[in-house]
Amino acid sequence: MTRLKIRKIGNSLGVVLPADALARHKVVQGDTLILSDTPEGFRLDVYDEAVAEQVEAGREVARRYRNTLRELAK
Questions:
Q1: Which pTM value belongs to this model?
Q2: What is the pLDDT of residues 13-62, one digit of tens each?
Q3: Please, what sign has the CA dihedral across residues 8, 24, 42, 32?
Q4: Residue 2 falls within a domain, yes or no?
Q5: Is residue 1 part of a domain?
């Protein structure tokens, strides 16, 4: 576990991620991260476009077949 300190960065607040943690997760400058709220606190994940496309495809199927899925869930 790594402790991070919140710092002022321009007009915002932010944290600096340690280089060794970034290297372990193969994150480089310019990558996109996703910050999620969880019951335990924050979760930080690397944005993966392939996963995002799969999630969007699943949402589209759920929208298109909403009634069918509702019936199957009974």
A1: 0.59
A2: 999 999 999 999 999 999 999 999 999 999 999 888 888 889 899 999 99
A3: positive
A4: no
A5: no
